[in-house]
From TrEMBL:
This is NAD(+) diphosphatase. It comes from Mycolicibacterium arabiense. SUPFAM superfamilies: Nudix (SSF55811). GO terms for molecular function: metal ion binding; NADH pyrophosphatase activity. It comes from the Bacteria. Belongs to the Nudix hydrolase family. NudC subfamily. It catalyses: a 5'-end NAD(+)-phospho-ribonucleoside in mRNA + H2O = a 5'-end phospho-adenosine-phospho-ribonucleoside in mRNA + beta-nicotinamide D-ribonucleotide + 2 H(+).
Amino acid sequence: MTDFTLRNVPLLSRIGADRADVLRTDVDAAIAGWPDALLLRVDRRNQVLISNGRVVLTSAVKYADHPDEHAVFLGRMPDGRHVWGVRAALEAPEDPTAETELLDLRRAGTVFDDVSAQLVSTATALLNWHDHARFSPVDGSPTKAIKSGWGRINPSNGQEEFPRIDPAIICLVHDGHDRAVLARQTVWPERLFSLLAGFVEAGESFEACVVREINEEVGLSVTDVRYLGSQPWPFPRSLMVGFHAIGDPEQEFSFNDGEIAEAGWFTRAEVRDALENGDWSSDSASRLLLPGSISIAREIIESWAALD
C-alpha cells in the first residue's frame, strides 16, 4: 500500500467559527460589535481556562469599554457575536458552579470542541507574534497594531508587517508495505518516538524539503513524496505540513545533523500496539511511546496504522 489519506481532520485544523476576515479592515464594524462581544483570555504561559470541553469566554465590556491596542479580533461565533483575544490574567466564568480547568493548547486539544480549538490556536499564534513584533525589522522603530490585531505598522515610514508563519514539513517514511520509520530526538526521553520533521528553507518547495530533511536527519533517500494535510502549530508560530514518502529499509541510517538520537523501522503491528498504549503522557512500559492526538503526527501515524 503506497498511498493513503488522513482518516480525520487534524485537531487544530478544525473549523468552528467564522474568521470574518472582512472585519479586520472594517475596524468600525468590528468595534461596533464590542458591547456584545466575547473575550478569550490567554495568559503569559499560553494557558486558558476550559469548562466542559469549551474554552471560557467572558464579556468583553467587562474587560474594557472598547478593544485596546493589544486586543486581536478572532472572528464570529455561530450566533454572530464577535470574539476577541487578549493576553491577560485568566478570569473564571460568570457561572460560579461551573467547573474549570487550566490547560494550554498542547494538552487541551483532545477535549476542545471545534470552536474552542480554532479560537485558541488563532489567539495563541497572533498573541505570540505580537509579543515578538513590537519593533520594526527595517529600522528598529516601535510598531503599533492595526487591522484589529492582524498587522502592525511602523508609524515613521508606513511599513506594514503581518503575522509570521514558519512552515515545517512532517513526514512518515514507509517501505510501501508494513514498515515505517520512527525516530527519537536527542532532547527527548527514552522510548519517545515520532515522525521526522524540519523547517522549510528559503527558495525550497515542501517536497524538496521532505527529501532534504530526511536525508539530513537519518540519511535515507526517499521518493514518491505525497501530501497528506496540514495543521497550525502555534508554538510559537509554525504550520505543520504533513507528507508520506517511500524509503528503503536496506539503506543504513546516518544521523548527520545531530538532531536524531536513534531511529528504526517499526512494523504496523508494533505501531498499533504502541497506539493502544496511549501516548507520551502514558505510564505504559511499552518500548515505543508515540505523540499525543493534538499533533498531526498522531493522525498521520494512526491513519497509516489503520491500513489493512
